[in-house]
Amino acid sequence: MRNIKIINSGWAFSKNAKSAPKAMPSDWQALDLPYTWNGKDGQDGGNDYYRGTCWFAKEIKAADLPEGEVHYLQFDGVNSSCEVYWNDKKITEHDGGYSTFRVEIKDIKDVNILAVAVDNSPNDKVYPQNADFTFYGGIYRDVSVIGVKKNHFDLDYYGSPSIMVTPEIEGDKATVKIKTFIKDDYDCKVKYEIIADGEVVAACEMDEDDEAKLTIENVHLWDGLRDPYLYTAKATLIEKGEAIDEISTRFGCRTFRIDPEKGFFLNGREYTLRGVSRHQDRPDIGNALLPEHHKEDIDLILEMGANTIRLAHYQHSQVFYDLCDEAGLVIWAEIPYISKHMPGGFDNTVSQMKELIVQNYNHPSIVVWGLSNEITIAGSADPDLIRNHKVLNDLCHKMDSTRLTTIASVTMCSIDSEYVHISDVLSYNHYFGWYGGTTDMNGPWFDTFHKKYPNKAIGLSEYGCEALDWHTSTPTQGDYTEEYQSYYHEELIKQIAERPYLWATHVWNMFDFAADARAEGGENGMNHKGLVTFDRKYKKDSFYAYKAWLSNEKVLHLCSKKYIDRTEDVTKVTVYSNCDEVELFANGVSVGKQAKGKYPFFYFEVKNEGETTLTVKADGLEDSAVIRKVDTPNESYIMKEEGDVINWFEITMPDGYCSINDTIGDIMSTFGGKIAAIKILLKIKNAFASPEKADAKPEEKKKGKKKGSGLEIAGFELSVGMIKNVYGMAKGFTVKRAFSMMGGKFTKEQILEVNAILNKVKKPTK
Hints:
alpha+beta, Jelly Rolls, Immunoglobulin-like, TIM Barrel, 5 domains, 8-stranded parallel β-sheet, 6-stranded antiparallel β-sheet, globular
């Protein structure tokens, strides 16, 4: 029978080695797996984390190998490419940092040296290369040695578990097809068993190449969060009457379909999918997680009330898929074909998709295979990009006829593009209200798509905004406050709830995660769109907005507990609750009761005098916070960005007049604002003009210029249509934020000049 031994302990590591060692090096760093070398520098900003080749080595004695006639090494995750050496001889290589791979080891000596060259350096053939997250280098999941007989269930095919289970539900029974893959030289038999609650409920014995068909009477369905029941399929390889190998997998019996009008159906009933996306990394350890980390993530997601997870943007740990099966979560699984199409990466998309499917085929939680994410940022008309997606789509259908394909498309990609209609179902990543536009643009956008393509199921694969420990009573887009994030998600929840045709919606993101290239919000190297902080210690207020909306557990949460010092005489207090009635008290005196409306959000106004203890009560629950009246704003609540060229107190804001703290949309809603915009655009044009353009003669500047072609900035010509499109996205930005997103191209003096222009523009009448 097969024997498996995890070999995570006793490794040596080097950033400087150039080749596989012939003996265990004494000057390398000693460590245990899992490990990434980017746990620190991949999270601190600057986009300067080490991307290159590092070496791992381990001594393995023959006497310590698990019993077996044949031995395989199994690597559960090595990012992103690697070469494996056994006694100074290369025995395999692998491209793709998130999937399992194996290799047989031969020529075993009494003492052996296993060495792995791991490379996460930039290249043009292995995905991902361009994405908003850190590509941690290392051996960050388990490494095992498997000992088997010469004849055994196959260990060579794309990291497969060598057993495929396909249940087909017919009334109250299920026909379960089981296929195994065997590597042998002689005729063998395979004994199949289906086990439920420790009892064998169906069994048969087949020739090795035959597919088994077993029947489960009175089948117990895998029914999502309500009842995620799992069976076990076991296969035993029998040679001359002796059991020589055994494998097993859990599976669930369920049906699903996706309706373009009514959304997702599980086992014949409507089952609205509302949930989150998940990145897996954590402080200091990056992707090098332990099982308890995966369990904590699942528990937090379940606490929030989510019933679906988009596992972005790569294959996740088998530990996590197993937890999803057990919990009843519905999963979108995808490969890291992301952001930028690489002509040289075609083969890698195919191999990563094959690995994703064969390694995860038996998980009942998975319902869709994701082909790509935001791959059309540079445009969707590339014939090679289209071909790549069609090949992947066909591959998924050929390898797995039981599931659908999907794509996460980016806002700028036209709904008429050929690309968005390749997959079976579709979702879009929209950030109206954060990266552009306003929150109220989200719902109407989907209505437009749904009206034009009523037979195409559409979902929302990413939406969110960032929040750190900044606070305000006047939340605005781009301020990175917890209060704006709360407002944003309240508005999105309302729009999602009104549109049952959305087949799935996934908040971006459940947890803050590292993106070393980022410099936003006052803490570099991080994406702070999580509902929970990177360390999983703090649940932001928006987490409770979803818990109140989705969870069956009673919820009562008083928001903005960290926002104590407030300058206003009357302040807004927000409460999230799914209770029927909520009552708020200020220093023990009732402010009032409110009955739950259509949404689980309650808003009170409270006098802000001295220090006030706020207490909210409902259905035996209670929550409290303290606010305090102050005369000047508490600067610790106001975002301070590293390298920010201008501070909030340097911006003049005359009463009744605009400033760079006003939104582009508000400014442009007035005639004076439009005149000011022309002046500002001319300043921007001059600031970006190249020396050649600036020195050119008037006739040279006009040469080749077509009438009505638009405005040219930094050599990039903005057409009238493009300007309109950009304006539609950006009108929710403050002018200050628009400048900040241009990457430090403007000095403080230039920005203050723009502010002076705006100070002469009367604010629009609200």
